[in-house]
Here is the input.
Amino acid sequence: MAGDSSLAATTAWLVDIPSPTGSEDAIATEVSGRLERSVPVIRTSNSLVAGRRTGRPLFLVVGHLDTVPAQGQPSASVRDGRMHGLGSTDMKGGLAVMIHLLEGIRPETHDLVGVFYEGEEGPASGNMLEPLLLEHPWLQEAEFAVVLEPCDREIQLGCNGAMNASVVFSGVAAHSARPWAGENAISKAGSFLAGMHGREPVPHVIGGLEYFEVMSVTRAEGGVANNVIPAEFRLNVNYRFTPDMTVEAAELRLREECATADRVEIVDAAPAGPAHADHPLVSALTLASGARLAPKQGWTDVARLGAYGIPAVNFGPGETALAHRQDESLALADLDLVYSALAAVLS
Here is the structure.
């Protein structure tokens, strides 16, 4: 079984291959070249499907190759039991675990296949996971999938859905010296903004886990000059809805909350990911890892897999609070924990 040292070396190797979103060619080439020595690899653009398909129940390990843009981080280094460097926790440690599983594990009961995809950290339209599921429909037959996003040593079930809406308040432009000649679109939104500011998270208990429905104003734009009463005030409302809600139900709820606006336009929406607390492989993974089950408050590609009927959980090395930070790092012990647990389940 691979120990900390080899997993750490693979993580450092991956960290030192720059792969910001849109520039995944080099890392796809390097990972493909390494895996081809052990398993068949199919490459589509800068995404990879690696493993042998024999017809046994299919177990997927899933991870994205890209990172957020660099913020001046140095090359990979180890200090005090932690790997430092861009992408170490999100999610090159997870990719290292995937590579070692594909190289070292020969499951007796499952076909193990790794899905390495590009574009996760950018706009949803560039995320290549769904195109891979459509190009290789046999992936949709998977009995189970693990997304190796950083998970704080927890097995995080499901995920909240995400929706953005453009919420517009309309007024009438006028000279600011004579505001009574118009209608101020910004101050018109005052009651709405006060209500949003005081809006509390709404808990939803699903399968014994508590998810929180939250709605927030994240952007605001209005006005054309300092001496003009604004005729339009446009807000972005970001809505995170829980796994017991459909996209349609979430849109209805958002529109109800924004009913005082003059116009509400849905900009984008991603479904929530179902929680699979009762799945036998979740039980096996819990037993093998000793990790507790926890809800996933943010959105991950567990939702995208769930939309295709694939039961999936989030379980990868790293701490969510350190993702995307300039001082990003990863506890090396997390690599061995996740690798050992998945190897035990597969073996």
